[in-house]
């Protein structure tokens, strides 16, 4: 399969929303602050919302991201991605197949794949037409407590096998983020360390996002 062109936004801070941290009345403001701080990519992830809520929030996020010329990725839902004209989807191993998403969304869509700690899953994602592969969790995580652990050595293992951007997720913060990049990650996906309620209350989301982005300049 011909691989899609690598999107220039697939490097930097990958901000992922969490409804436990961001109720609807804070969602857009928080994401806009992340974008102001330089977040390269936004993923809307919500496992508990109703269909109506998902569409409404995704539409609002799509408008917000377009205003800052940054891609919006929808977790799991190809149908909602199409409905709100988002730039792509992120798929777990239990979600729709990557090749089905590519077929429905076209060659320019950003399609991410969860690969946990597996070279084999990353190779399959590459073959199926993924735009990036995501590994983790690497540290104790507020949002992904049940995810299987991963080792940072996975980036070296796939370095010459997977010519796609590589995302690290799971417990990443400003204290350990540089070590993750040093091991070979192209993006660091952050939930709690960016969108925690104390960051919102103190208007620190943009500041935190900028600090994460600064790690990529080293």
Order of helices and strands: EHEHEHEHEHEHEHEHHH
Q: What does the radius of gyration come to?
A: 16 Å
Mean of all residue-level pLDDT scores = 94
The CATH topology turns out to be TIM Barrel
Q: Write out the strand line-up for the largest beta sheet, numbering strands in chain order.
A: 1-2-3-4-5-6-7-8
- State the fourth-level CATH superfamily: Aldolase class I
Number of strands: 8
Structural category: alpha/beta
Low-pLDDT residue spans = none
Helix proportion range: 25-40%
Anisotropy-based shape:
globular
| Total number of distinct structural domains | 1
Any key phrases for this structure?
eight-stranded parallel beta barrel, TIM Barrel, 39% helix, single chain, alpha/beta, globular, 10 helices
Please give a quick description of this structure.
The protein has 218 residues and is an alpha/beta fold. The protein has one domain: Alpha-Beta Barrel (TIM Barrel).
Q: How would the blueprint of this fold be written?
A:
Layout: E1 12-16, H1 24-36, E2 41-44, H2 51-67, E3 72-75, H3 78-84, E4 88-91, H4 98-105, E5 110-114, H5 119-128, E6 132-135, H6 154-158, E7 166-169, H7 177-182, E8 187-190, H8 192-195, H9 197-201, H10 205-215
Helix pairs in contact: 1-2, 1-10, 2-3
């Amino acid at each position: 399969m011909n691989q899609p062109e690598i999107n220039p936004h697939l490097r930097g801070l990958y901000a992922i929303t969490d409804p436990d941290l961001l109720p609807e009345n804070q969602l857009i403001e928080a994401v806009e602050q992340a974008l102001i701080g330089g977040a390269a990519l936004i993923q809307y992830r919500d496992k508990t919302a109703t269909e109506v809520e998902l569409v409404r929030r995704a539409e609002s996020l799509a408008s917000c991201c377009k205003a800052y010329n940054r891609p919006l990725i929808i977790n799991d839902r190809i149908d909602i991605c199409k409905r709100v004209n988002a730039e792509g989807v992120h798929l777990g191993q239990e979600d729709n197949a990557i090749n089905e998403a590519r077929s429905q969304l076209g060659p320019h869509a950003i399609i991410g794949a969860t690969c946990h700690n597996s070279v084999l899953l990353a190779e399959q994602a590459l073959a199926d037409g993924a735009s990036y592969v995501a590994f983790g969790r690497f540290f104790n995580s507020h949002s992904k407590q049940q995810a299987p652990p991963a080792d940072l050595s996975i980036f070296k293992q796939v370095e010459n096998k997977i010519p796609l951007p590589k995302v690290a997720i799971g417990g990443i913060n400003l204290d350990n983020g540089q070590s993750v990049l040093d091991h070979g990650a192209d993006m660091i996906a952050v939930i709690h360390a960016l969108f925690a309620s104390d960051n919102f209350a103190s208007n620190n989301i943009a500041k935190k996002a900028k600090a994460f982005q600064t790690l990529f300049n080293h």
